[in-house]
Write a structure and sequence with these properties.
116 residues, five-stranded antiparallel β-sheet
């Protein structure tokens, strides 16, 4: 739910951001990165990598010592989370019913692009 942003918004935010970038640059290598906690406790996190750089808009949901990441080669949250899966934005949107939402995301992406 967006009203809790950034809490529990990492998947939706990452996919939407990735789709906007894909519309702007169809050649970009956009990966959805899924991770889970190193210590085995409950907790997962998702962000995107664009051409190898990390973008984590919701990193600050984990406390004041973490800030959103924009185009960095690494990030502090890797101390807590380990990557268990990377999929292209196209592969990721084919999972878990995202294809049903693509039309809405496409419309939102078009509106965001018009803002520039």
């Amino acid at each position: 739910m967006v009203f809790q942003f950034p809490n529990d918004c990492c998947e939706t935010t990452s996919i939407l951001f990735g789709l906007v970038i894909l519309k702007i640059n169809k050649e970009a290598d956009i990966q959805i990165v899924r991770s889970k906690r190193h210590d085995g406790k409950h907790g997962r996190h998702i962000w995107i990598e664009i051409d190898g750089s990390i973008f984590d808009i919701t990193a600050d949901q984990f406390g004041l010592s973490y800030q959103p990441i924009y185009g960095e080669p690494t990030m502090p949250l890797l101390e807590i989370f380990k990557v268990y899966e990377k999929k292209t934005i196209i592969e990721a949107t084919a999972l878990n019913g995202w294809l049903d939402k693509l039309q809405i995301f496409d419309e939102v992406a078009n509106q965001i692009i018009k803002l520039k």
